[in-house]
Amino acid sequence: MSVPTVDSLQSIYTNASLIKQGERYDTVIKQFNQIYGRFPEFIVRSPGRVNLIGEHIDYSGYGVLPMAIERDVVQAVATDASNTKVQIANMNPKYPTRTFEYEGEEKVVTIDSSSLEWSNYFKCGYKGMLESSKEKVTPKGMSILVDGTVPAGSGLSSSAAFVCSSALAVITANQLGLSKQELTEVAIVAERNVGVNSGGMDQAASVFAEKNYALYVEFVPKLKTLPVQLPSGASFVIAHTLVTADKFTSGPKHYNLRVVETKMGARILAHCLFGNKLDVVLDTYKQVMDEYFKTKQGISEQDQLTQMLTLVDRYLTNTTGYTVKEMADAAGMVENDVVATYMTRFPVQTDVFRLHQRAVHVLTEARRVQQFIYICHQHEQDVNNTNNNDVLKQLGDIMNSSHESCATSFDCSCPELDQVCNVARQHGAFGARLTGAGWGGAAVFLTTPENVPTLIQAVKEQYYHKNFPEFSKDQLDDAIFPTEPCRGATIFTGFDQS
């Protein structure tokens, strides 16, 4: 299945935002013409996402449940077959115009991952697509204008939206014909060129999401997505704490460290359970779980996860934290091999590795995802749909438990996230939790349509007015906003190209 091409913004956005989005696209097209002296040939867009449940478990192999949001990255593009020069400008003046050249089939383009440079995210998509394409072509020159509305560092996946839209721009410009599946898989790997070890949820949601549905994303044995109908009467609000948490600078102490902690925990568990009997390395909890239960029939995934928690308590016994040597010894590895395998390409900074706590979060969070989807499916089959608030309360309780686990076991919350979630729960949110990597960024609240204005106003008064009294109405509306499940990556051609 390829990324759809549409000629109507109504195919992408909700009716409530069509006028605003139409004005935005007209502005992008006009600005493109002013910069490049021509009109774009097409516009690509990929949305940010909000993860409803399933935080920091994708890189452990477990499925997650995000939904795409209206906020997105749009790229207007024109091509030039006479050269391979790429010019990329941004509607936001803080990001300077950049130019680079195709460097040949072997290298494609140089990306300096040590530099926090905005155009690197475009280069990731450019390099990834051209390296993976079965059709080895000399790429066309491209003139690009980017407009992004996903707040950077918000936990709403601005980087994945940028990389996915960049990859889609390259596919479309060079007629590479890659499917949604291929686009997603390449984008997952491509983003690692900026030094972030991403798991894949962000890219899958940005590409595969469907309007009015959440998206269950599985990664094992291969990437697979399934739309999940959310209960009628469920409304969502996103609040950006304005604590910026970009993965590039915080990765070594936060995101990349958690990847190592989960992978080494899984390796130790695998060594304790299987010794040297296996020919393959198991370094995700999903791999260990699948191997452990492959001869045990009739056990649901929820029950498997519960039993895995018992194994974690039995074998990951050092609750104060492991040193690198202690991890290596427990996993039957050499210390230098641990460093070379897990801490070289994606550096980490820490004194000890808290494997037990991270494992508890991963396994309980994976179980919460299954519970959330089960409740949604049960409600969908309820022909009367008379218990909306009861269902929303059940889902909200799961979201609240998720936030508590993120804050205590995974240590990826912050005081500001805790504060906005508490305010939301006190003013009609059934559930409130951090979303995205955490350590700042955004929270998502589950409420009812009629309560959205009250909830937003309460958070404005008790969080934003106190912490950011100088903010204008537009700034506040940009920080906290309602959202609906939106469509994923799209190519738009419904405009005058002359």
Question: Outline of this structure?
Answer:
Helices cover 43% and strands 17% of the residues.
Can you put this structure into words, describing what you see?
The protein has 498 residues and is α+β, with helices and mostly antiparallel strands. The protein has a domain at 5-229 and 485-492: Ribosomal Protein S5, domain 2 (2-Layer Sandwich), CATH 3.30.230.10. The chain contains 16 helices and 13 strands. A 7-stranded mixed beta sheet has the order 1-13-2-3-6-4-5, with helices on both faces. Strands 10-11-9-12 form a 4-stranded antiparallel beta sheet. Strands 7-8 form a two-stranded antiparallel ribbon. A hairpin with a 5-residue loop joins strand 7 and strand 8. Helix 2 crosses helix 4, helix 7 packs parallel to helix 10 (324-331) and helix 12 (355-381) runs antiparallel to helix 13. The longest helix is centred in the C-terminal third of the chain and has 27 residues, at 355-381. The model has no long low-confidence stretch (mean pLDDT 92).
Helix/strand/pairing class, anyone? Answer: alpha+beta
- Which percent range fits the helix content? 40-55%
Question: Architecture of the domain at 5-229 and 485-492, according to CATH?
Answer: 2-Layer Sandwich
What's the pLDDT, averaged over the residues? 92
Shape: globular
Rg (C-alpha, Å): 23 Å
Break the fold down into its secondary structure elements and pairings.
Elements: E1 5-6, H1 18-36, E2 42-53, E3 65-80, E4 85-90, E5 98-101, H2 120-132, E6 141-148, H3 158-173, H4 180-190, H5 201-208, E7 213-218, E8 224-229, E9 235-240, H6 247-250, H7 255-274, H8 285-293, H9 301-315, H10 324-331, H11 335-342, H12 355-381, H13 388-408, H14 415-426, E10 431-435, E11 442-447, H15 452-467, H16 473-479, E12 480-483, E13 490-492
Parallel strand pairs: 1-13, 4-6
Antiparallel strand pairs: 2-3, 2-13, 3-6, 4-5, 7-8, 9-11, 9-12, 10-11
Helix pairs in contact: 2-3, 2-4, 3-4, 3-5, 4-5, 7-8, 7-10, 7-12, 9-12, 10-11, 12-13, 14-15
